[in-house]
């Protein structure tokens, strides 16, 4: 496909100019002052797809618009659905930016702007790759659909019902998402698994008001003491969660996965240095990467009780609360966990204490089989784009919308990240490496070709 490669080479400057145009739009979804800017970002993408001859439409929601586009159908070939988002996080604190957040600036081979890597730059690689196919070859080897939303940074509230209502329109064989990172500089990766999550708040109430700890201590149950005991009951000193049945559905790691993780260029010493700690802990019998990526965990996210001002105040607090979360692995059920957790905690309530357990949200983990033909196609494409094969990694974070795609559309999801871990996502001086921007476009262009070799009903 020499004409395709020539087009990619000759249009590097144009692609960067288009990226700058999109990054200039302050599409901050959480702030109503930017409502029209968010809409302009949607309109910008809509025009891009229209110029390529795609069928495209802006769908209104009760929040921000959703942009949909599709190329012509290719009978007998797989259909890929690209998901991304055009909304961005607020840019504050502004005084920590070296250049204005919505004035894209190139320094040291990186482009700096809010949304550069999350997710405008990464998402745009797929838009530019289909542009290359359409303008050089005249058509794509498969049908590519795009679903680009404007509410990812505020929870994708209106996207889930949209997927349910438009499942026939969104029918596909594989979903492609680029909103993650490479394993390291120059080392592309495919993220084939994500953890799920279950998030709670535990509220304990004791006496009707704070009491003098000297006068009442030892006779009245202290909610803060009780909270500490209840939380400590959830995990042992070997890092094992103690909720009954917690590990019943956890699959053991395969030897192949353990060998693969062990072969990665990773050291505990470098990891500790990067986060500023002098030691690591976790579930016994597992490496740091295995703990982070593949084992379920429990973490307290915040604790509130009693006096927290300057100096001393001896009180027996009337209330105590904590927010905590479990990161889940595939096959663990957040609903089942909630039932077991509630029973476990209720059995620990002492006299004089009332308990309320709030279940905020939950989402299961997911994993794509490493022997999936779509995984092989993605690996081949990435090697063409980046000049070296990707490594296969999992991620300890959760992307709930991925689970929605899997459950609603019944397809595999390819997480192909072009960013880097030091891209300052959600922080001042967010950046995206321009070399990786172009490598991502090249890999994406190759992906449509490698996917075309798969027969959908054999995948």
- Uncertain segments: none
Global structural class? alpha+beta
User: What summary fits the major beta sheet?
Assistant: 9 strands, mixed
How would you describe the shape? globular
Question: Approximately how much beta-strand content do the residues carry?
Answer: 15-25%
Strand tally is 18
The end-to-end span amounts to 25 Å
Helix content: 25-40%
Averaged pLDDT: 96
Radius of gyration, in Å, reads 25 Å
Number of helices: 14
Domain Peptidase M20 dimerisation: 192-350
Keywords: Dipeptidase, Hydrolase, Metal-binding, Protease
Pfam family, one: M20_dimer
Organism: Blastopirellula sediminis
Characterization of the model:
The protein is an alpha+beta fold and 459 residues long. The chain is 34% helix and 22% strand. The chain contains 14 helices and 18 strands. It has helices at residues 2-10, 12-23, 35-51, 116-136, 159-165, 213-216, 223-232, 255-262, 268-275, 288-294, 334-346, 373-386, 400-409, 434-451; strands at residues 55-59, 66-70, 79-85, 105-107, 110-112, 143-149, 174-177, 189-194, 196-205, 211-212, 297-305, 315-316, 319-328, 354-363, 366-367, 391-395, 412-417, 431-433. Strands 1, 2, 3, 6, 7, 8, 15, 16 and 17 form a 9-stranded mixed sheet that branches. It has a 4-stranded antiparallel sheet with strand order 11-13-9-14, with helices on one face. It is globular, with a radius of gyration of 25 Å. The mean pLDDT is 96. Its EC number is 3.4.13.-. This is Dipeptidase. Residues 192-350 form the Peptidase M20 dimerisation domain.
